[in-house]
Design a protein that fits this description.
The chain is of the alpha/beta class. The protein has 20 helices and 17 strands. The chain binds uridine-diphosphate-N-acetylglucosamine (UD1) and uridine-5'-diphosphate. Uridine-5'-diphosphate binds at residues 10-11, 14, 242, 244, 273, 302-303, 305, 308, 322-325, 328.
């Protein structure tokens, strides 16, 4: 099977590692297409090197520009490559411009699209990412969703349950596997260095109680641990801070309020690996220099993944507007404060591990201090269950693709039936029957399921018992 992947930014590289590993492990042909949206060594190449990913077959080299220009260039480049390579499937991940460009181009060439991390919604249409993920979900054939909540969102938008697969999030695969590697390296450093200088990983071990279900770590992988990060890891009360969202960093008032909050957090050591976009706007707004003068604020360049995982896992709090960090924080049992007023990761808030503090200075400062000073509050947040799966998302995604390919279903066909050959109906089910039996008996496809006992929606998996449920379904004529 020939599988193409389009990616272009730091989080896509990290979140596609387990998928790429599985493709290679299973002997499929991989066509890796880098759009070149992120191009600094710290934002791209260092991850390929550290995570031992194959060099992309193509780099379109789009660089930075306006959304229209950048997406247009990506589409042109991707089309040329897909016409030449004719892959069986194209995979995209997340919500960047690469996802929009890849999904749109491939679907028009009748190449099936698999959207990894589909079904996320912030309902904020001013976010470029919301436009990208919604548009990609119109063009996709396979929806690999991280949680039941995302699956329900897609089925409410009219996507067939047969195309939606709850796999967990591949970020958990990346997190578990690489944290093991990072730990091993820290142990090696510990064992080989002067004990008085060594990093004490006790905090970090307490936090990382997650089990590793993915491929066992390869301790021969190279680590980029710098002395700088090893020294930072020795600090107490670390806040890992990242931000790069347009709505924060391009808005002077919001960015100033956030920076003012950070400057007030004197009881913490704030480690801030700065995204290049944020560094530029902080400099332009005259906010960089004053912050860099504070002794407890450590402004550093973007880190490699192993360094960054260790930093997060040693932190007391993660303060961020990143999507990936909200997921990683709850995976690593670290409370997070999200610098946004909405999130497409609501599970993290519902589980109790994440608070949306926006750009509200007092709320940011009070929340951080409460986590520091109120142990039961800290415990409650750090013990929030991880909704993003067990670290086997990459394997599940490949199992699904292979199964579909073997059945001859991995292709885009015109439908046999026209739309009005089915009627959409609602019903309260009073018999003991599973979703798949109901569908077979009634020549139907269930769209949504509502459980009145819990006043909540359920995703119609094959084996869900429908007794007492309200269902919406299409009945074929
Ligand atoms: C992009 C994604 C965002 C994702 C983020 C991950 C879109 C619309 N945005 O946002 O969803 O969360 O990546 O980090 O796809 N720059 C550099 N060097 C680089 C890359 C960027 O200096 O290697 C600077 C440039 O000034 C550029 C700015 O950062 O104009 C913004 O980069 P861009 O890729 O447009 O958006 P991100 O904010 O990185
Ligand atoms: N990350 C990293 N080094 C850093 C900052 C972030 O390796 O200095 C990783 C982080 O662990 C996560 C991903 O980059 O997996 C998140 O990327 P980003 O915040 O840029 O994008 P988003 O997730 O918001 O799309």
């Amino acid at each position: 099977m020939k599988i193409a992947i389009v990616l272009g930014t730091r989080p896509e590289i990290i979140k596609m590692v387990s998928v790429i590993d599985e493709i290679i492990l299973r002997g499929h042909e991989l066509i890796l297409i880098h759009t070149g949206q992120h191009y600094d060594h710290e934002m791209s190449d260092q991850f390929f090197e550290e995570l031992e990913l194959p060099t992309p077959n193509y780099n379109i080299g789009v660089g930075s520009s306006s959304h229209g220009k950048q997406t247009g260039k990506m589409m042109e480049g991707i089309e040329e490559i897909l016409l030449k390579e004719t892959p069986d499937i194209l995979l995209v991940q997340g919500d960047t411009n690469a996802v929009l460009a890849g999904a749109l181009v491939a679907s028009k060439l009748h190449i099936p699209v698999g959207h990894v991390e589909a079904g996320l919604r912030s309902y904020d249409i001013t976010m470029p990412e919301e436009v990208n993920r919604k548009a990609a979900d119109v063009c996709s054939k396979y929806y690999f969703v991280p949680t039941e909540k995302s699956a329900i969102k897609l089925s409410l938008e009219g996507i067939s349950r047969k195309d939606i697969f709850i796999t967990g999030n591949t970020v958990v695969d990346a997190c578990f596997r690489n944290l093991e590697i990072a730990k091993k390296h820290i142990d090696d450093i510990e064992n080989s260095s002067n004990p008085s200088n060594s990093f004490n990983p006790s905090n970090y071990s307490n936090h990382s109680n997650s089990s590793n279900n993915s491929t066992s770590p390869d301790s021969s992988k190279s680590s980029s641990f710098s002395n700088e990060i090893l020294n930072l890891l020795k600090l107490d009360n670390i806040i890992t801070l990242t931000m790069h969202r347009a709505e924060n960093v391009d808005n002077k008032k919001r960015l100033t309020d956030i920076i003012d909050a950070i400057a007030e957090l004197k009881d913490f050591n704030i480690v801030f690996p700065i995204h290049p976009r944020t560094k530029k706007t902080m400099e332009n707004f005259g906010l960089y220099e004053d912050l860099s003068k504070l002794d407890n604020v450590h402004l550093i360049k973007p880190l490699g993944y192993l360094d960054f995982l260790l930093l997060m896992s040693k932190s007391l709090i993660i303060v961020t507007d990143s999507g990936g960090l909200q997921e990683e924080a709850i995976t690593l049992d670290i409370p997070s404060l999200t610098l946004r007023y909405n999130t497409e990761r609501p599970e993290t808030v519902e589980m109790g591990g994440n608070i949306l503090v926006g750009a509200d200075k007092d709320f940011i400062v009070d929340s951080a201090n409460k986590i520091l000073n109120d142990k039961s509050f800290y415990d409650k947040m750090s013990l929030a269950p991880n909704p993003y799966g067990d670290g086997t998302a990459g394997k599940k995604i490949l199992d699904i693709i292979e199964d579909s390919y073997e059945k001859g279903e991995c292709k885009l066909d015109s439908p046999d039936d026209i739309m009005d050959t089915f009627t959409t109906l609602m019903k309260i089910v009073d018999e003991d029957i599973t979703v798949s039996d109901f569908e077979i008996n009634n020549n139907a496809l269930i769209r949504t399921v509502f459980n009145p006992a819990y006043e909540s929606m359920k995703f119609p998996t094959d084996d869900l018992n429908l007794k007492g449920m309200n269902i919406l379904y299409d009945k074929m004529s």
